[in-house]
Amino acid sequence: MDPNELLPAARKEFLRSFIRVLGPTLADASAAMFNMAEAAYNPLEQGQYLHAGAMLRRATEVEQSMREHLETLLTRSFQTTYNSFRPASVLNMSGGSLSLVDSSALESELMLKEITASFRTEAEEQIRDLNIRVALLFKQEHIRERENPFRPYLIARSIALAVDAYGLEAPLAMRLTNQLAASLAARVGSIYDSVNSYLAEQGVAAELQFKLKRQTSEPTPQAAAAEAAKENQDYVEIGGQRYDTSRRDISHDRTPGKLEQLFHSVRTLAAGLGRSGGSAGSGSEQGAARHASRGGTGVMTHFDSARQAESGAAEEAGVPEFATQDEPAFKWLGSNQLVGTTLRSFFDGSQATQASPSYASHAYGAAANQAASAPDDTAIAGSNAEARQDGSTEESSANEPSSSRTAIIATVHQLQKSFTAPVEQMFDNFGSIRNLILEQRNHLNALTADVDEQMTIDVVAMLFEFILSDPQVPAEIRAQLGRLQFLVLKVALRDPTLLTQKGHPARMLINRVGSISLGLKQIDPTGVHIATEISRIVATLLDDDSENAQLFTRMLDEFDAFIAKELRGSDTQINATVVAVEEVQNRTLRLVHISAQLHEALQKLSIDPYLREFLQSVWVRAIEFGEHQEARRGRRYRLLVPDLLWSIVAKSQPEDRTQLFALLPIILNTLREALGEIAYDPVRQKNLLDWLVDAHTTALRVASSMPAGRGLSLPAIHEHFFSFVYPSTDSPEQLQQEQDAPETQRILAQAIRDLDLKVDMLDQLLDAELGDESAAMALPLPLDISTEMIRERLRSGVSLEVKLGLKPSTGTLNWVDPKLNNLVLSLEGNEQPAIVSVRMFRRMIAHGRVRFLEAEPLFERAVQALLTSADALDQPLAA
């Protein structure tokens, strides 16, 4: 396979496929711009959209511009593909002076990043296959999308350059670029399919060969450490990096430095919180933190292991070296700064540290390491420093990791592959779980002079010091979480929001695993099933090299589904209750919704009280049943309401009388059909029909003196009920109000009684006991737990303490309604499950009748313990 022959031909196929999809893409984008013009209220904005739409109508001109820009970008891309080889036939092409990073098309390269990401999402498999094929052509063992000359960034860039050439206003140019990208996204897959098909025909497969490396070329960490010990060396070399294996004994008589004190304190807090079940920040915990910060040892720490271990295993583990009192404990801490204040700024994302000038120009939570200036074209063309992991970063050097960050991330990745031990090897000689980051802290910090990277390394190590020591989590699960240390550090270095935002997928997954630990016996008495599932999730994360945070989200979803399945499968009564509640709840919500719609339609009309009561209490059930069976039948039952009301209005015109005689059979047949379906009482049905006979008789007996045209016409009443007969989608706010309405719970309770389910309805049990609901909702929640926080923590498998009588009992959330309306609980000592609405659950928390056994999620406990320890370090007790 000669790249000199295959790549130019593949380039032609790529361009041919790109041009083929441009026509329909421009047509779709033009139509979208005209639609925006119609929806615009501002005449100026409307004119801009019309201009952009008309511009796209000139398809030939736009296609030519995009094709020319793509050809130039391709030429430049071919010149920077894989430093190890350059196809001669491509090097002769002229690329002009166009750079792959200098762009005036958009105000920010972030826009190109989003567009490129959307292309990857639409054609993930095709792009991955092409990345592999290009790597095979160049005889590369590692796959990097950055080295693919047909990468999706080029398409995104060609769109931006083509739009930029028209000199539009910046906001309009960005919107037009986005629209073109959106219209093209669905067709990107076909472009890469064509190139893949061509290369496949030429014998280039999308499969990398698995090659075993000889042991002598790169020994395992254990073997390398043992060999180094034999030769009395102080280091071993793995993957081009040197790792210390020498024993650094720390004297018992030395006063511990700040960092050592902080690690002592965090681990001591973990043990103390596990025994008390409290949360960080209380007086006892702060006292423990101060005790540890002054050198007290409440538990065995990694520092103790470093001092006391005598076996060779401790040496192989890489005992850390810490700062002494004569040197700064934290390179990221200024001389006049407090540790607690600095860490709070770090976790808040405000980054108030002044220890290094680099902190002033770096903001966590924004794009990492913004470059001061872009390199020139020559430097870009000849540099191989732009190489990335597959699809993980963008083309622009402004958004690329710095060389320091790229190096440290690569090192952490190598450590993840080489030093992540099996579960049974995660325990040291004293039974503590090894802090792998702490073991390699000095080596990692030595690889970077960037203080924010050093701070990230230290903070992640300290957070894991708590996580690995928290006795609320079983040791085996902690050991599994410990295997993720280098992966979490790598993600934190790439994406600092992991440490600044509670909603980061990796953080949420750790919290979810920790929360399950408290209710482990209720979910899985043996613990085998859950331990196996957690092991599978950890292995999946460690085996994946995409470094995509979406994988954490997928693993979290799979873990949630697994827990829900375990809970329902382990108890047939729980499963039957959940199935019934799901069905009843859906039908109850529809019933309440229909009732609200009918009430709104009837509220301005004067109707006989008997008929109003029938429609609002009985006929809404018939409509709900009909819609549940078939949408057309439900609409027919809705249409009966205006027909029935019109039929009993006085008829003064002959044509109205004629129309009534034609309509009466339809009304009566529909009534009998629907009332039979809902098993309406026959006696009451006969009473209704008798009442209607009297009402229709009265309507036809019109006094001769009654003015003509006074009656209401059938089309007029149909128009009044149009929104009821043909309802539109209601807003989420309105649906939520109906879901929370007290009558919804009453209907649900009645339906469950009708099904004869053996459950406790806590809403009914506690409604009167807890007093006025509005007053209860005004009560402050304990521990500053907000309503939103409650909703976030409602997950199946979560453990609770519920107080229904004099003595509290332990409970487990067996099922959480996806719409967060109702919960199914199992209470210790109670054979039958309990159902409670989320609204009542909040009231119970406010009244102290229920609390989460886990005061805070695991990761958040670690953060709080670290801050508490830092505050104690800043304000030590007087001797």
Task: Indicate the topology.
Layout: H1 3-39, H2 43-57, H3 59-79, H4 88-91, H5 109-122, H6 124-137, H7 152-164, H8 170-201, H9 221-230, E1 235-238, E2 241-244, H10 258-276, H11 283-293, H12 302-308, H13 312-316, H14 339-348, H15 357-360, H16 377-382, H17 403-419, H18 436-439, H19 441-446, H20 451-467, H21 475-482, H22 485-494, H23 497-500, H24 505-518, H25 520-523, H26 528-543, H27 550-569, H28 572-602, H29 609-629, H30 631-647, H31 654-677, H32 682-700, H33 714-720, H34 722-725, H35 732-740, H36 742-754, E3 760-761, H37 762-767, H38 773-777, H39 787-793, E4 799-802, E5 809-816, E6 822-827, E7 834-837, H40 838-846, E8 850-852, H41 858-874
Parallel strand pairs: 3-7
Antiparallel strand pairs: 1-2, 4-5, 4-8, 5-6, 6-7
Nearest-angstrom radius of gyration? 35 Å
Name the poorly predicted regions. Answer: 84-107, 210-255, 296-328, 352-400
Number of helices: 41
Computed structural class: mainly alpha
- Tell the overall outline: flat
Q: Give the strand order, joined by hyphens, for the main sheet.
A: 3-7-6-5-4-8
Summed over residues and divided by their number, the pLDDT gives a mean of 75
* N-to-C span: 77 Å
Written overview of the protein:
- This protein has 879 residues and is mainly alpha-helical.
- The strands form two sheets. The protein has a six-stranded mixed sheet with strand order 3-7-6-5-4-8, with helices on both faces.
- β4 (799-802) and β5 form a beta hairpin.
- The radius of gyration is 35 Å and the shape is flat.
- It starts with a helix and ends in a 5-residue tail after the last helix.
- 39% of the residues are buried.
